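Annex B, item 7. Sequence and structure tokens for protein A, then protein B.
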Amino acid sequence: MNLYELAQPGVITNPASHVEYLTMVLKENINQASVTKAISEITNVQKSVSQKDNTCNLSITTGFSANGWQILFPNIEFPEGLKPFEEMKDGNRYFPATAGDIFFMIKSSRLDLNYQAAKYLVKFFSGIAVATEDIQGFKYLDDRDLIDFVDGTENPVGELRYKSILVADGTYKGGSFLTIQKYIDKQTMWDALSVEEQENTIGRTKMDDIEIDEDKKKPYAHNVKAKLTVNDEEIKMLRQNRPFGNALEHGTMFVGFIANPEHMVASLKQMITADENGNYDHLLDFVTATTGTNYFVPPQSFLDNVGG
């Protein structure tokens, strides 16, 4: 079986036009029977809701944090490399670590069906967990974020995608590590910049999404500081980011899948930490991170087996 055939389908596919990000925190004193029952309902919800529109391509991707795994699956091998999100600070920049034991990413072409699936998941998991955040994301124009730059341009495709985001061997072959951060835009500050200043901050042109030449790119550009190179090889991740919110408050959900979670940590540290020349990712001056959680998204067979 090919590596991508082992993965949960929502992990390896592109972001959809609508997505629901649902975070849950476990209750105390849950029993294994309740865990098994809840997890078994994930597939049932997906099948039931999908039948209402077979063209909507609805998928439910499920991940578990380190704390969540230890409580839910105490007698099952712990995924190597799964760690809680590490709080990071440098200067005025801050990446908080926040609570989350179970994470669902529900995506399809229909907001209403995503909502219905989320509603059912909240109901079926109510015996073991409490939903603490429910964010609806959406496609904006030609895959732009709400500061009007195209997001996800450098996402890997094909075999490179599978290699970059899926665990290649071991017990959880086909699984993936996931980092979630919610960013609120500082829109007024961003709008005060000229287009040239915005482009220098991102490292790409605004209108036609062309990468700025390396010899002209600023050392503080987002696509410079977020890009990680190890042993002369660029490390790729899959960003299934989507904007969320409304005209009053909005931002971007950072949804990053990667095969090696240490590379995600290194990328985030490189963004937030000023180097010897004082350069950090200047996009962080115009957004505020309000959440930070890490999850392991096991292969589909794990959910099928645990759900019985």
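Protein B:
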Amino acid sequence: MNPVESISRSGGASAPRNLRAVGQPYFDRLLERCRSLPRLKVAVCHPCSEESLAGALASADAGLIEPILVGPRGQIGALAAAQGRELSGLRLVDAEDEAASAAAAVSLCASGEAAALMKGSLHSDILLHALVRQGSGLRGERRVSHVFVMDVPSCERPLLVTDAAVNIAPTLDDKAVIVQNAIDFALALGIEQPRVAILSAVETVQTNIPSTLDAAALCKMADRGQIRGGVLDGPLAFDTAVSTHAAAVKHLVSPVAGKADILVVPDLEAGNMLVKELEYLGGAHVAGIVLGARVPVILTSRADGAESRMVSAALAVLLADYRAQGA
């Protein structure tokens, strides 16, 4: 039916469909949950940009973390002064460059002086190399993978996207670990029996599209108990993973289709584009964390602002508390 009254929107852009009209955005609720939890000691690696330092300090101001700033003392001090911030009450570990900062930050976590690691303004591969190298003390039993948590205005639930930052072209065995890491993390967030969509371009298994074969194999692995804690389905295209209408039109009968909590992408390129499209065109708020190491690793893009870094810190706080409870 046509609206009774005319509707106008500023800026000329169409608003996303099915916007949440009521309720608190997911990231706000996430931060609220952390208020009663202990602060997490975090080694902040090379916070040598305005955004990375502001994010670490905002996380401290919010009562989430106790930051240990690791990097060039003079550069960090100058950045803080430019922001009108005083660092006298914080520990600062001097390191001359990105590689030295990464090594020092990892060492702090390995020794137990810090309980989590936060990326600053350095390149991700430098930090991850220091993290996973032999003898780092932080390598866990599983492969390391990354999860983006997306607070999308047009979706009533958070969306977890994996892996869009660490594993470039994962094998089937890699994907099994990536899925298990994401399921365990979803449980830590309080998502009971998370629904996992293994994404591809189509919903049918086709031998000329390798990601559909991987999806089918992952689902069978879950049936056999090789992947636990979640409900898997795939291959699913993005629309049928998140839209019940699209799933109905395509006659899909599935406990996951249209209701996915976790989106498992075929490779890093597809995942990176999906996340940035949701963020820059869909208005999503984004946070990210690395799983599989002995400590939570707060890994965001160098372009991310203070809010994204603060919410990512909240994810680490929740994960650390979940592990502390022995779950």
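Comment on protein B: The chain has eleven helices and eleven strands.
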